[in-house]
Specification:
368 residues; alpha/beta; Isopropylmalate Dehydrogenase; 2 domains; two-stranded antiparallel ribbon; 12 helices; 41% helix; binds nicotinamide-adenine-dinucleotide; binds 3-isopropylmalic acid; binds manganese (II) ion; metal-binding; leucine biosynthesis; NAD; magnesium; Isopropylmalate_DH
Length: 368
């Protein structure tokens, strides 16, 4: 039998820098745990535009559809800001999500003990935090029609449409309830049912799926603005949060700061099961290409490393090895290894991106 396939798309900015550390980790699991992957690498985002004039070629799209899992670094950067909207780096990522139909974006926000002091919130508010944001990823205002910039009389009008079908809401709700059953058994659904029809439908459908299929899971509903407030006031009240594409984008960046740094937050984007029973899947850090620190060896590779841990768990049935990798990251942080984003006043010189990767490898060695 052939090895499971892993398509790596490093992308732009710090994407290739953090991905280089993940390659070391993949090498370690191969050499020390006998976990073999058929790894291939390709271009996405600005890197693909520079070579092909498009942020994602049809060939790369086809490879992603075939792969057992895709691992992506980050896309975008100031160099591409003035490009036409249709070929911007971000369009490559959005095409991958849409065409692979990766409707459930899992964004865990876990506060490692060693970083509890580092959050911008007080330690007792974040210590022990472990929440999972499930963001709908293939619909809503990101993809709704009509969209565009049109001329109305003498002025331009920018149009985007929030649109959700019942089945789109129901399937992501199921993902959230399934996850909750394996965690704290609680789901909070967030929308703006007070002002948006799509929010009214969202609330109704989540409630219906709950009542018919998951009555054992505790369900609550919150307006997304109040949810944002509660997320920073008392985040530990939440277990799983399920929300739409745009609210999920905002809430997950806010949640990232509860954990100390955007550089710590991984994500998994999952679709329907393939013929082999595994979900279609793309794993990526929540952060972007961080142009302000790109090329300086300063990036924190943990979010990307932890995204690979999610791949081990959700795509490759390697839950124990995923936990081994997560513990290794935790151990490194507990030992005080810090990239620049995790430094506080008075700290000594920061670890570089590759120092951090090497420290994780050393912690993996120590786990054997
Ligand atoms: P960003 O996440 O790239 O950076 C925000 C801030 O966090 C910056 O100060 C950056 O230095 C810091 N940061 C992010 N990741 C870090 C890491 N691993 N280690 C240390 N510090 C880190 O967001 P932005 O600046 O708003 O966006 C920059 C570009 O990235 C834009 O083109 C945007 O569209 C794109 N973007 C891409 C993705 C993605 O590929 N999934 C996600 C978000 C933004
Ligand atoms: C994210 C990013 C993307 C999004 C962009 C780069 C398209 O912000 O993954 O959170 O808005 O979904
Ligand atoms: Mn975002």
């Amino acid at each position: 039998m052939s090895n499971p396939s892993l398509l790596i798309l490093p992308g732009d900015g710090i994407g290739p820098e953090v991905m280089a550390e993940v390659r070391k980790i993949i090498g370690w699991f191969d050499a020390r745990r006998g976990l073999k992957f058929d790894v291939s690498e390709d271009l996405v985002g600005g890197a693909a535009y520079d070579v092909h004039g498009t942020p994602l070629t049809d060939e790369t799209m086809a490879k992603a559809q075939e792969a057992d899992a895709v691992l992506l670094g980050a896309v975008g950067g100031p160099k591409y800001d003035s490009l036409d909207f249709s070929v911007k780096p971000e369009r490559g990522l959005l095409r991958l999500r849409k065409e692979m139909d990766l409707y459930a974006n899992l964004r865990p926000a876990q506060c490692f003990d060693a970083l509890a002091d580092f959050s911008s919130l007080k330690k007792d508010i974040v210590a022990g935090l472990d929440i999972m944001i499930v963001r709908e990823l293939t619909s809503g205002i990101y993809f709704g029609e009509p969209r565009g910039i049109i001329k109305e009389g003498n002025e331009r009008v920018g149009i985007n449409t929030q649109r959700y079908t019942e089945s789109e809401i129901a399937r992501v709700a199921r993902s959230a309830f399934e996850l909750a059953r394996k965690r704290g058994n609680k789901v909070c659904s967030m929308e703006k049912a007070n002002v948006m029809e799509s929010g009214i439908l969202w609330r109704d459908v989540v409630q219906e799926v709950h009542d018919a299929e998951y009555p054992d899971v505790e369900l609550s509903h919150m307006y997304a603005d109040a949810g944002a407030m509660q997320l920073v006031r008392a985040p530990k009240q939440f277990d799983v949060i399920v929300t739409d594409n745009l609210f999920g984008d905002l809430l997950s960046d806010a949640a990232a700061m509860l954990t100390g740094s955007l550089g710590m937050l991984p994500s998994a984007s999952l679709g329907a099961p393939m013929a082999n029973g595994r979900p279609k899947a793309l794993y990526e850090p929540v952060h972007g290409s961080a142009p302000d620190i790109a090329g300086q060896g300063k990036a924190n590779p943990c979010a990307c490393i932890l995204s690979f841990a999610m791949a081990l768990r959700y795509s490759f049935d390697q839950g124990e090895e995923a936990t081994r990798l997560e513990r290794a990251v935790e151990m490194v942080l507990a030992d005080g290894v810090r990239t620049a984003d995790l430094m506080q006043a008075g700290d000594t010189a920061p670890a570089s991106t590759s120092d951090m990767g090497d420290a994780v490898i050393a912690a993996l060695d120590a786990s054997l």
